[in-house]
Write a structure and sequence with these properties.
alpha+beta, seven-stranded antiparallel beta sheet, 43 strands, 33% strand, globular, membrane, Cell_synth_B
């Protein structure tokens, strides 16, 4: 890191500038890295980790922006366009903003009276030598409103707002990394890169189902790595000139532009992209085998054993997929068969800590199987243990506990116990000014979904009782204990289907088995590049939802669907797959064919859907149409089918766009969701079936509860049964006394 470098406002003063066994030969004589021409991109405030404007206040004057740089890039230029507004009631000779980059002051921006209360824009040129892989840009407000030594940091005059229009323009050049498998999953995926992942897959023309399955396993692995970023996998028959890519090769089915020597077995190779300039640093990851089985072994070895690979080529000796997985054990899903502690839900215990008088909420994310059914209870026990720097007397310090942005309870934070005995006994290394608390909060089951977030908002009230009492210091700390728990073990897995909302947010029912062991993907007999991209992107989504590659998924053409009758089916419904859906009958919610749509419609009503009349309408259309369609498998009761249907294969991308858009994915619901350009409409028009299992007594109670008359009769019978049992027991007791 260069010391003494600075940034300058452009408009003011200038300044100085182990599941597989792998044989991996080592690479020697790697050329030194070379950098390509720079490429500029803009990072918004949101992309740098801020949700909305950054509000700097007297008691909390610091704002932080996070900027990451890929391992195969180097920063060659950086320009921060800082847009902000500050208070018009300050002493401006004593007030200013300090801008930091990785702890070093790079700019000091004065607050002038002439611009107070107005939107101010400053262009800061940042020294690229200060950038590393993870970077923090800090903005600190130094502000005063009075010369009195009793200045109150809570005074409303002390404010500055950093606008969401703030932008960091980062210019980076690519570095030519060595051809080394030890760098995997880089440079194809870099965890420092928060942009959506896009990796072209290079396939031979007319790739068969076995080759597509091997590629699908790889796409599901990259989807799991990409996580919240999302991933797309466009398909090409030749390596692209402007991107890293992954190629799949067999001796008799080699992609154009990919030249390999003799294939000696399941092989994983990383090489320079032959379609790109050598200085670009673009890489091509090649998976090869002498037959489809070996190609699959190469794919499995990549996703399971890449940490053991090195050099530029690895020949796989053996692959063991390990024992079969259990239902609902996806790594991204919290266990529901026992109480779960918060330390299992966060990657770092520091995420459970907070500092300052009004810090951001402590957030704990929790993904659950969406088919949880609370037949015997209406809430979930949440046992929260927390600690905090206690106030010296009762005030308005509180802890607000919420789930999914809904308040559950507010807890007043008690003052410190003068004796401090109990605290010292529990936490002997902490001072007596810390207090502890515990709360059992009942979380309403209706507020819990498949994706949840618990929020713990600490607010530490000021302890000042007068203007000239000692000023408050930023010494308050609070934390939620990692041993706090939440317990879903009393729930069962049972739900009404079809439900496309489950599919769009968690991949259910396919992700019930994290490795998709009960799932078969049905593709057209002659898929084109759009069908293949939809296949790979959907398997990438499955990996994102479950956190595990689809190691045991089945993939069949539409003509072989009878071989997977006992599985849940994910259908890419164009071409022969669309003909398959037409074969399954007019009872489906919607049939989409070239130039014609056949749709079930239900009268708009608030009545239960099994009481609403269903009609059908057929129409000829000349515009694009795509839809998610969910229904019960025509082969096996209780199994599900979800189809991605479109009148042309290039419209499948509309469905993939919806799944990747957090703002629109919530509109996918019911058993039919139609996508027309930007419009997403969810409907419920088909029949209901149930998936999962209920104990017999729970099944009886659930079905009786649907009919009030039966509920009344059951209550009377239950009362008579109890009364007769008590009468019989009392009679036996009286007879026993008379005998003695």
């Amino acid at each position: 890191m260069a010391h003494g470098a600075s940034a300058r406002p452009v408009d003011t003063v200038a300044g100085p500038a182990a599941a597989s066994s792998v044989a991996a030969p080592q690479t020697t004589g790697a050329p030194p890295p070379a950098a390509s021409a720079g490429v500029a991109r803009d990072l918004t405030l949101k992309q740098m980790g801020a949700n909305g404007a950054i509000k700097l206040r007297g008691q909390d004057p610091n704002g932080i922006l996070n900027v990451a740089v890929r391992n195969d890039e180097v920063v060659t230029g950086a320009r921060l366009r800082l847009v902000y507004t500050y208070s018009p009631s300050l002493i401006y000779s004593l007030s200013h903003l300090k801008v930091f980059l990785n702890g070093e002051v790079v700019a000091t921006l004065p607050m002038d009276k002439e611009q107070a209360g107005q939107t101010v824009t400053k262009e800061l040129v940042l020294d690229p030598r200060l950038f590393t892989d993870f970077n923090r840009i800090g903005v600190q407000m130094i502000a005063h409103y009075t010369l009195d030594h009793c200045e109150d940091p809570y005074h409303t005059s002390l404010w500055t707002d950093i606008s969401p229009d703030t932008v960091l323009t980062l210019t980076t050049s690519e570095i030519a990394l060595p051809n080394s498998l030890a760098l995997l999953p880089g440079p194809f995926f870099d965890r420092r890169d928060n942009r959506p992942l896009s990796i072209p897959f290079v396939l031979p023309a007319h790739a068969d189902a076995a080759t597509l399955r091997a590629a699908g396993v790889v796409s599901s692995w990259f989807g799991a790595l990409a996580g919240w970023r999302g991933a797309r996998f466009p398909v090409a028959q030749t390596p692209p000139t402007d991107a890293h890519a992954i190629a799949f090769a067999l001796p008799n089915a080699m992609p154009e532009g990919v030249k390999l020597g003799e294939i000696k077995g399941p092989t994983v190779i990383v090489m320079a992209n032959p379609a790109s300039a050598p200085a670009s640093g673009r890489k091509l990851l090649v998976l090869a085998g002498r037959d489809a089985k070996e190609l699959q072994e190469a794919a499995d070895a990549l996703v399971l054993g890449q940490v053991g690979m090195s050099g530029d080529e690895a020949i796989v000796k053996s692959v063991d997929l390990g024992p079969e997985r259990r239902p609902y054990d996806a790594p991204n899903w919290a266990p529901v068969d026992r109480a779960v502690s918060f330390k299992e839900l966060v990657s770092d215990p520091a995420q459970l800590e907070a500092a300052g008088f009004n810090p951001p909420p402590v957030r704990v994310d929790m993904r659950l199987p969406p088919d949880l059914f609370a037949w015997a209870r209406h809430s979930v026990p949440l046992n929260v243990h927390y600690r905090y720097t206690a106030p010296s007397n009762y005030n308005d310090s509180v802890l607000n506990i919420g789930v999914n942005d809904q308040l559950l309870r507010s807890v007043r934070l008690r003052p410190a116990d003068p004796s401090g005995v109990e605290r010292q006994f529990n936490v002997p290394l902490l001072s007596g000014s810390e207090a502890r608390g515990a709360e059992e909060v009942r979380v309403p089951a209706l507020r819990i979904g498949s994706t949840n977030q618990f929020q713990f908002q600490f607010h530490m009230d000021s302890q000042k009782t007068g203007l000239c009492v000692a000023a408050a210091t930023d010494s308050t700390r609070a934390a939620v204990d990692p041993d706090s728990t939440i317990d879903f073990s009393q729930f069962v897995h049972y739900t009404a289907m079809p439900n496309l909302a489950f599919f769009a947010t968690s991949g259910f029912p396919f992700t019930r088995m994290a490795d998709l062991a009960d799932t078969a993907v049905v593709i057209p007999d002659a898929p084109d590049v759009h069908d293949e991209e939809a296949l790979f992107t959907m398997l990438g989504q499955m990996g994102r939802w479950s956190g595990l590659p689809a190691l045991r998924v089945s993939l069949v053409p539409a003509s072989a669907v009878d071989t997977v009758r006992d599985r849940d089916l994910l259908v890419i419904g164009t071409g022969s797959a669309a003909e398959l859906m037409a074969k399954w009958g007019k009872g489906l919610p919607m049939l989409i064919e070239r130039g014609e749509n056949d749709l079930s419609v239900r009268e708009p009503t608030d009545r239960p859907k099994d009481q609403g009349p269903v009609a059908r309408t057929a129409m000829s259309v000349n515009g694009p149409t795509a839809a998610f369609v969910g229904f019960q498998s025509p082969y096996t009761s209780g199994k599900s089918v979800v189809a991605l249907a479109a009148n042309t294969s290039d419209r499948l991308g509309d469905l993939l766009d919806v799944l990747a858009d957090d703002a629109r994915v919530g509109e996918v619901r019911g058993d039919l969701t139609v996508v027309r350009q930007k419009v997403v409409v969810g409907l419920t028009v088909g029949d209901t079936y149930y998936a999962g299992h209920l104990p017999w007594y729970a099944w009886l109670w659930v079905h009786i509860s649907r009919y009030p008359a039966l509920m009344a009769i059951a209550g009377i019978l239950a009362g008579l049964f109890v009364a007769l049992t008590v009468f019989w027991a009392l009679g036996r007791l009286a007879a026993h006394r008379l005998e003695h």
